[in-house]
Amino acid sequence: MNYEIKRPLMKVIDKCLLDHAAAVGTKEGGPDIEDVYRLQNLSKIHYYLKEEHDFLADEVTALLQFTDPLTVALECWKEQDHPWEFPICDILYAIKAYERFPLVNPAGYVQQKVDQIQSLKDRLDRNMSDFQAELLGMDKMEIIAMSAEISAMQGAHNFMKKYFKFEPGNAEILLRMENPLKFVATQWRSDVAELFDMNAQVGEAIVEAGKEAAVLRYFAAPEQRQAISLEVQATLQMLVDTDLKLYGEVTGDTLEAIQTQGFLLRDGALIKANPVQIGEVQGGRESAAISDSVKPSLRGQLHEKMREAGQRPPPSEHPKGGEAR
Fold first, then answer.
1. Could you give the CA distance from residue 69 to residue 50 in angstroms, rounded to a whole number?
2. Where are the domains of the chain?
3. CA quadruple 193, 234, 316, 254: dihedral, nearest 10
4. For the chain, which ranges sit under pLDDT 50?
5. 321's torsion region: left (phi>0), alpha (psi -120 to 50) or beta?
């Protein structure tokens, strides 16, 4: 690094070392051994920073935020466990230095963190837009195969924008990544059965289903036995939105996929059909785009919440081609 870039920091740590030496010499009752050893350690880290460490620009900026960067650097050195490097910025966050040591401008530091979080959220929005643009270039079967990834990206985007509690350093680390949204999405849990008591929930649903003869007839049909996941519902909804955007109507193959998977289309939004409705659609007695009087299922309500969390809301009127052919 050019010495001129780190010159302001070198001047500050020079003064810090001299101040510590003066404090030891003027201590009431004289210095003790611990004071001498500490001064010795401060001298060693001072020499290392001036003569050996290959500074990054953000490391200079970070240390200059403290009133005593020499002491802070010494604490970082005590905690570092990288034999071939000294990543000052990472260690500052690891030891919670911004909370433990006095800052030159506390208000400025707070504003800097606010700006970083906003910059990260803007980056997340761009990552999501790029991902959606990539999906528009795929055929529908490829998109359906990516159901889990689509759900993870949507969930991660919504979570990071609205609910994640940022700790010092989180935003800065993520901003170093070209695609922080994809990084977060790879941490997204899809194993619902391990997160919730699905055995009890499914068992209760089976008992309730057994009380209705129509439901029993529905489950007797082999082609209807496959359970529909939330990821598939989200993917089907995206196909509907894409059709409306590209063609102004929902295409026949999309409607066929919706019906096959056990859903109905209402005002551009998918709802989980009950067995009686599915039988009526299959028998030609009811259209695939049902009336507004049908109460949305739990899946439909969840999907509505997902759209409120940032996805484009569906049109307010029935799309062209929204009825089964």
1. 13
2. 3-100, 109-185, 221-308
3. -130
4. 213-228, 285-302, 313-325
5. left
